[in-house]
């Protein structure tokens, strides 16, 4: 059976790293490229983090292109070091990769891969700045579908009472992306906040041999510490980006969705709020799923043989 090609557009922090590792271990998909954007950390650091993680995994041929540093209407202001560490990956001092990032711009790499893979899925795990630029670029190739980790509908936001971080960071970009007629699935806080990794799961991760699983285990304590007492009563973290990766891979059971045109509020007070109305046959957001995302994540990581 052929593997579905996926391009990941990400701001490689801790949960992005988990998502990338999951996709490397998921037999149903193949990462064919990565573009980076500022969010958890800046776009250049996100690319360096991604290349270092790929080195640990023994993956030396996946192109990684640096995308937008600043957002559409404001400058990038430093990310979330209190959540992801100063380096975006828990301050674990990853060894710099042996290879450099791809020389192409993010839009160029997406266009190249969309032309090469007619069934390309774009998985957006950060602000949608690069995808908005793609929507505006002339004569680019249409990709098959877009999966976005972002938004909050019935659930409260995690930056403001209404807004989720990826949408809040660049709401103008999100509004432009959701105005396209692309086949789009959002994986919002409504479902990602129901899937968590706790301290016992970290012990299981620490037991997986290989350089990449060990790096993931080393960066997770900071992430757990951020959530503990602030978001959850105990030491556990939400699996935002890994869950979106699982939706993109089609590996979850019993996924329920709501269909409707997604809009982003831009006015002061509700800036970054996502709302869904009737009338779209191409947009949907995930409301729920069956089973355990952390069990799937750990099982996939355990099944792959990792170098190091």
Shape: globular
- Which value, in Å, is the CA radius of gyration? 18 Å
- Give the termini separation: 29 Å
Q: Give the averaged pLDDT, no decimals.
A: 96
Element-level helix/strand string: EHEHEHHEHEHHEHEHHEHEEEEH
Largest sheet: 8 strands, mixed
Number of contiguous helices:
12
The beta-strand count equals: 12
| Percentage of residues in helical conformation | 25-40%
Spans of at least 5 consecutive residues with low confidence: none
What can you tell me about this protein's structure?
With 308 residues, the chain is an alpha/beta fold. The protein contains twelve helices and twelve strands. It has helices spanning 14-25, 43-57, 81-84, 106-116, 129-136, 165-169, 171-178, 189-192, 199-206, 211-227, 240-249, 293-303, and strands spanning 4-10, 29-36, 64-66, 121-124, 145-149, 184-187, 196-198, 236-238, 253-259, 261-264, 274-277, 283-290. It has an eight-stranded mixed beta sheet, sandwiched between helices. A two-stranded antiparallel ribbon has the order 7-8. It has a two-stranded antiparallel ribbon with strand order 10-11. β1, α1 (14-25) and β2 (29-36) form a beta-alpha-beta unit. α1 (14-25) runs parallel beside α11. The longest helix is centred in the last third of the chain and has 17 residues, at 211-227. The two termini are 29 Å apart. The model has no long low-confidence stretch (mean pLDDT 96).
